[in-house]
Amino acid sequence: MLIPSDISGLEQAAESIRSGGLVAFPTDTFFALGADGMNPDAVENVFEVKGRNPGTPVPLLISDVEMVDALNTAFPDQLKRLADHFWPGALTVVLPASNDVPQVVTAGTNTVGLRVPDHDLARQLIQMSGVPITGTSCNLTGREPTKEAAVVQQVFGDLISICIDAECGESSAPSTVISYEAGRIEVLRKGAISIDSMRNIVGDIIVS
């Protein structure tokens, strides 16, 4: 169901997420398929609807850096410096997951990828929902992500509760994904945030 991006629509979408539903919403990159990241059943539904292997981790979108504390057990200073610089933005930081993060999110890795999207509507939706929201792209597995609400509605239809009819940001690349291993930052996926721009802040970075 397509709904407008006004406050009434956002309230409806937030209530759907709190109730375990799936909501498609725009981000700074592409449309995301959002569910309550702390609700294992809701996250499993994300996998089912996308046709995605449930043995892969799911990134979580948060509204601000304060939400990180409840989701991780360690936030290395170098990663925090990058987050402080690039959040909100297309940078996903992989951290050791707290016990509160469902295993279906971590896929047994004991880590969780976190990002603050550079999109006002997305952050507002997360704030109103009161929980981190899954940030996987809203597309069938193996298909290209989309920036169009009409395409989301055509592909998923009644499989999702709500699709917010609003524009994505201008980024044409996915988020850059980084982690911290053996005292060094490692790039797990190249994306919108360039390696050189990160090196300007923290120095040496390993590229997988």
Characterise this structure.
- The chain has 208 residues and is α/β, with parallel strands linked by helices.
- It has one domain (2-207): DHBP synthase, CATH 3.90.870.
- It has helices at 7-18, 40-50, 77-86, 103-106, 120-129, 149-156, 195-202; strands spanning 2-3, 23-26, 31-34, 60-61, 91-96, 111-115, 133-134, 162-164, 176-181, 184-189, 205-207.
- The strands form 2 sheets. The chain has a 7-stranded mixed beta sheet with strand order 7-4-6-5-9-10-11.
- Strand 9 and strand 10 form a beta hairpin.
- Helix 1 (7-18) crosses helix 5.
- The N and C termini lie far apart (40 Å).
- 43% of the residues are buried.
Quick gist of this model?
The chain is built from seven helices and eleven strands.
Would you spell out the secondary-structure blueprint of this structure?
Layout: E1 2-3, H1 7-18, E2 23-26, E3 31-34, H2 40-50, E4 60-61, H3 77-86, E5 91-96, H4 103-106, E6 111-115, H5 120-129, E7 133-134, H6 149-156, E8 162-164, E9 176-181, E10 184-189, H7 195-202, E11 205-207
Low-pLDDT stretches are none
Q: Which CATH first-tier class would you pick?
A: Alpha Beta
The protein's oligomeric status is single chain
Fraction of helical residues: 25-40%
Per DSSP E runs of 2 or more residues, the count of β-strands stands at 11
CA-atom Rg in angstroms: 16 Å
Structural domain count: 1
Q: What is the terminal separation in angstroms?
A: 40 Å
